[in-house]
Amino acid sequence: MTDYKLYYALGSAAMGVRVMLEEIGASYELIETTIDMAKPRPPDQLALNPNGWVPVLIWGDQAMYECAAISVFLSDRHPEAGLAPGVDEDARGRFLQTLVYFSNSVQNAFQLNYYPDRFADTPADEPSAQRRGNRRLNETWGVIDEQIGDGRWVLGDRFSAADIYLYMLTTWLCPARGQPPVETFPNVSRIAAEMEKRPSVQKVYADRIANGAA
User: Fold this and answer.
1) Is the peptide bond before 55 cis (omega within 30 degrees of 0)?
2) Which helix (H) or strand (E) holds 102?
3) Could you read off the pLDDT of 104-114 as tens digits, one per residue?
4) Class of domain 92-198
5) Could you give the CA distance from residue 41 to residue 44 in angstroms, rounded to a whole number?
6) How confident is the model at residue 213 (pLDDT cuts 50, 70, 90)?
């Protein structure tokens, strides 16, 4: 019996959750789905997340969605993996703050660029939403880059699920769409490069790494 099931699609936030499962050493089953909004979602997925988004994590007869929430849940459920500070540790606040910022601010900026129809009244207004998304990507990644400073990881000397989340988000950056290249943010870029050395990332992002994506 597997520990977890994960609704999964390449290029989605489910890839970050899969890296976490690899870091934890849990057994899991991937349930393939899609992030193409023009294609139907499996009814079982929609029953668990009516938004139709991934990741959706299942364990036993329970399930949850939202990548930041799943990251906290898995970190706390598997403390032996060392993916999060404990609730009484000083770094806990920054850990939670960063995950929520990734989810609410950085990901929102990506959505403005990739899904402008969600933010514009008419198709003619969509390019404006896309441009605003790219400006927000520069702003939000700049905040994270400054927060990292000269720390080895997001939380300083301590590796955590925040670094997994950071790497996942950097894989979405597409300069061809007017988005900033990861090299614009040297501290973010440094952590992303370090993340690519980890066996968990090498496995989950094997195709991307093999193709030489930055």
Assistant:
1) yes
2) none
3) 999 999 999 98
4) mainly alpha
5) 8
6) low
Q: Tell me the per-residue pLDDT of 41-88, one tens digit each, with 9 for 90 and over.
A: 888 998 999 988 899 999 999 999 999 999 999 999 999 999 999 999
Give the three-class secondary structure for 143: helix
End-to-end CA distance of the chain: 37
Cα(114)–Cα(50) distance, rounded to whole angstroms?
20
Q: Are 167 and 204 in contact (CB under 8 A)?
A: no
Indicate the domain borders of the chain. Answer: 4-81, 92-198
Instruction: Give phi and psi for 30, each to the nearest 5.
Output: -90, 130
Chain segment 130-189, per-residue pLDDT in tens = 999 999 999 999 999 999 999 999 999 999 999 999 999 999 999 999 999 999 999 999
Burial (CB count within 10 angstroms: exposed 0-12, middle 13-18, buried 19+), residue 25: exposed
Determine the 3-state secondary structure of 63 from DSSP: strand
CATH match for 4-81 among 3.30.310.50, 3.40.50.10490, 2.40.50.100, 3.40.30.10: 3.40.30.10
Residue 155 CA to residue 141 CA, distance in Å, equals 16
